[in-house]
Every structure is written in C-alpha cells, then in structure tokens.
Specification:
Layout lengths: L5 E4 L9 H16 L3 E4 L13 H11 L23 H13 L3 E4 L3 H13 L22 H9 L5 E4 L6 E6 L3 E6 L7 E3 L7 H11 L4 E5 L6 H11 L5 E5 L2 E2 L9 H7 L8 E2 L6 E2 L9 H9 L14 H7 L10 E2 L2 H14 L2 H10 L9 H11 L9 H5 L11 H7 L4 H14 L5 H14 L4 H13 L7 H23 L1
Parallel strand pairs: 1-2, 8-9, 10-13
Antiparallel strand pairs: 3-4, 4-7, 5-6, 11-12
Length: 503
C-alpha cells in the first residue's frame, strides 16, 4: 500500500461503547497497524442534546483496556486537533457556505409544521415524502425564492438549515473494499441537511470535512452507514477533494442470527454488550461489562476479530500481533456475524490457561475474604491445579475451596456412592500408611498408597472415593495426591478422621 494509512474511530459520546463499536475500533486499529499507519480517535459530539457525561472517558478507557490506544486524539499528539467536533464548530459553517456558493447546497427555511404537513399529505396519497429535486422548488428555500427574498430571510434571522442539492437523473458508481461496486440512482436520494438551525453541522458535513482535514485515507465503519455513502461521495466531489477508500463492516447479529444485537438481548440472555461496566449518570442504571464479568481483554479482542472476518485458515487463537499480521479487509464478510455468547467463553477459557498463576492469585485473593490470611504463593499453586476447569476467576472458589477450608458437609449423592461397610476400617489403615511416610511428595504418596491398595488386593474405588470425599466433601477436584500434598499430612489425617467420625 503506497498511501500513508490514517484511519479514525469516531464514536458519539451518547452512552457506553457498544460491543459493535469496539469491533469497529478493532478493525480500524488492526488495519492501521498492519500498514504502519495511524489510529485516530475523534469524538463526534455534534448532537449536544444526546451528549452523556462520562461517555468520552468510558470510550477511552475501553480502548485502553482492549490494548488499542489511539495514536492521535483528545489530549494525545493533537497534530490535527481539536479532536472533538464540538470544539471544531467554527470550521463547518464556512464549508457549508462554500457548497452554497458552488451551487451544491442551498438554504431551506421550511418550518417543522410545513414539513409535517407535506409528510402527512404524502402518507395520505400512499407515497413516501422525500425532500429533493421533485418537490424542492415548491418549498421554502433559496432555490424557490429569489436572491432578494432569501437575503431578507437571512437578515431577519429566520431559522434555516443548509441542504445538499442532490442531482437528478444520474447514476453514481461507488466502490467499497468489502462490498465491491455499488450503483445508486440519484433520483431516490433526498437533499440531506448538512447544517442545522442550532448552528451545528450534521454528521454528514462534519465527518467529511474532518476526514479531509485530518487526511483520513480509509473510512472503516459499520454497515448502518452504507446508505450515507452516496451523499458522502457526492460531498467529496462537490468540494473537489479526493475521497478516502470506504469499507462497511457487517452487522453483529443476535445469537439467534436474526436482527442486530442490542442491549436488550444481553439482558435477556445474561451476557454483557459493553466492554466495561457502565453506570448511567442520569438514571443510575448499571450495565454489565466484560471486564467486570471476568473476561480477559485478549479473549474479547480475539473473539471480536472473528465477528465478520476470517483469516482463511483453521487458526482461531491469535495474539494481537498475530491479528495485525493476518488482518485483511478483503477477508471481511458482507453478511452479518452472529454473536455467540458461548464462543467468547471458549476464548476466555483458553486465555485463562495462559495467565500467570501469581497474578491470578492476587485477583482471587483480593476478591475472596476467606483468603485474606492465605499466602499468595500457596493460592497460586492451588490455581495451577484447578484453572484448567475454570473459565472465570469467579469459578475458582467452587473449584478450590477445599485447599483452604476443611469440608463441613459431604455431598449426599457422593456419600451413598463412596461409603461402604468396609470404609471405616480401610480409612484407618490408610491413616497408618500416611503416618508411616516421612517423604510427603506427590510421587512418593502415589507410589506408597497405590502400592498398599494393590498389595492388599483392595478395590481402588473403595479407598479413593471415600478419600476424595474426606478431602473435598464431594467426588470432584484435581488429583487426590496433589490435594494431599498441598494440604499436608496433618490436615489430610484430620479430614479422614472427621469422615470416620461422621460414618
């Protein structure tokens, strides 16, 4: 690729960053890093009515947690700043007026009541209201009014918007990296508002101007912006600017595969749709986040990469660097990608096995009051024995509690299976075997106890099941000899004696 790659992730700070937005940021990030380019964060806050306090910082925190820090953006390397559109407000009016001067846009003075009446009239006629070439000369705008009438309205302070003048009877030939060639009949396009009556630009004008001024080379965004592609191409043409290359990512679908994934789906099926926990500053409603639910950032990133992209190989586990090396927009699918809550758990389980046991022990200890006085190194040893069966740190206690506390009860079903008439006598003999051993290594324990069972022609189940029941309180857990080694001889004998007393 010869051009200098510059891509931007441009979310609106209207609430928490949806998982679909994280996927869009990820694909921009991977593309930028693949081509030694620049990943830019731009905050598109032109709609001040929907602005939510704290949302911008949430977006930044989410990107950082995912390991995708931006190269340029608010407060960072502001080469083309400012990076908040609300702070760029003075720029846009001049560009809107430039389009009016070139005949590509016009002032429209229509009131909301007038447009509503027109819309209702169309509905009555079973038509769709479109403000464009077929009716604009019948409405109140600088195309239907004389220059004097237009200037008089401007001078008197009448409310107005600036609309793009969409051409008539033309066919647009557009290109999309993912979707190929696209043809659009301009007769079906409406004259979009570029500049609002409140003095702020719409997304359409602001993002085109900013992309041009920030020298954006590729616009990688969600499929929901595909209907705007025709207008954006026309705006670049109207300004006489070279357009960036476009790539529209497929939708992320509900787990059923039907319809776009929403927060409601997560609430209904019990999984987050946001990267981090979010507390709405207005309603105090709390929404779950993947981080707080115990997912590793690497697992979520790996999972998201496969929502719409396929490397063309059987490999599923990728480090971030491997994703960067393998990523190609031409391998992104056109069709929607089904969100599978079980698949991200699969990824998290894998990444759990890759984690450092000492670091996991710190997290486990800090979240579990029962471990406050337990040595972290001991906790790490226990985690090493059980994490193969864990998906989240929150699974650790159920899988390992017997390493830290003596069982107080025994599973009823397991007891019926494990306890026989001979159990009392066999457990007493086992205590004698344990007490006779001075070397309490796993290897010696395994050899001595299994040797005693074999030489006395005892069924392994008659010894090992009640022994596990005594140590764990149930017929589950890692290797019995690992448990004995971890808790030590005295605690092991104590637990066996307690089982005998219970019998």
């Amino acid at each position: 690729m010869t051009k200098n790659v510059r891509v931007r992730f441009a979310p609106s700070p209207t609430g928490p960053l949806h998982i679909g937005g994280v996927r869009t940021a990820l694909f921009n990030y991977l593309f930028a890093k693949k081509h030694n380019g620049t990943f830019i964060l731009r905050i598109e806050d032109t709609d001040q009515n929907r602005y939510v306090e704290g949302a911008e910082q949430y977006i930044i925190d989410a990107l950082n947690w995912c390991g995708m820090p931006f190269d340029e953006g608010p407060g960072t390397n502001e080469k083309f700043g400012p990076y908040r559109q609300s702070e760029r407000k003075p720029l846009y009016k001049a560009y809107a007026e430039e389009l009016i001067a070139s005949g590509n846009a016009y002032y429209a003075f229509d009131t909301a009541e007038t447009l509503d009446a027109e819309r209702k009239q169309c509905e009555a006629n079973k038509e769709t209201f479109i403000y464009n070439w077929h009716n604009r000369l019948k409405l109140s705008n600088s195309l239907s009014l004389s220059a004097e009438e237009t200037q008089a309205k401007l001078d008197s302070g009448d409310d107005y918007v600036i609309r793009f003048k969409s051409p008539q009877d033309e066919t647009l030939h557009l290109k999309d990296i993912i979707r190929g060639d696209i043809k659009i009949d301009t007769n079906v396009l409406d004259d979009k508002v570029l500049f609002k009556s409140d003095g702020m630009p719409t997304y359409h004008l602001a993002n085109i101007v900013d992309d041009h001024l920030m020298e954006i080379s590729h616009v990688i965004r969600g499929e929901e912006w595909l209907p705007s592609l025709a207008l954006h191409y026309q705006l670049y043409k109207a300004f006489g600017w070279d357009a960036p290359e476009f790539a529209h990512l497929p939708l992320i679908l509900k787990p059923t595969g039907k319809g776009k994934l929403s927060k409601r789906d997560g609430d209904k099926l019990g999984f987050p749709v946001f990267p981090l926990l979010w507390e709405d500053p207005k309603t105090n409603e709390v929404s779950r986040g993947y981080k707080e639910d115990g997912y590793f950032a690497d697992a979520m990133v790996n999972f998201l990469a496969f929502l719409g992209w396929n490397p063309g190989t059987e490999q599923e586990i990728f480090t971030l660097d491997e994703l960067i090396a393998a990523f190609d927009l031409k391998k992104v699918n056109k069709s929607g990608a089904r969100f599978d809550p079980d698949k991200i758990k699969w990824f998290n389980h894998h990444y759990m096995q890759e984690q450092n046991n000492e670091e996991l022990a710190d997290i486990f200890k800090n979240s579990t009051p029962e471990l406050a006085d337990i040595d972290t190194s001991y906790i790490a040893m226990a985690i090493n024995l059980i994490k193969e069966r864990a998906t989240f740190v929150s699974d650790f206690w159920d899988l390992s509690h017997f390493f830290f506390v003596t069982p107080t009860t025994y599973d009823e079903k397991a007891s019926k299976k494990a306890l026989k008439e001979s159990t009392d006598d066999l457990m007493k003999q086992l205590i004698a075997v344990l007490n006779a051993n001075t070397d309490f290594s796993v290897e010696t324990l395994t050899t001595e106890i299994k040797g005693w069972i074999t030489s006395n022609e005892i069924s392994f189940g008659k010894v090992m099941m009640p022994l596990r029941l005594a140590l764990v309180g149930a017929l589950q857990g890692p290797d019995v000899f690992d448990i004995i080694y971890m808790i030590g001889k005295n605690e092991t004998v104590k637990r066996i004696e307690k089982l005998i007393a219970t019998i």
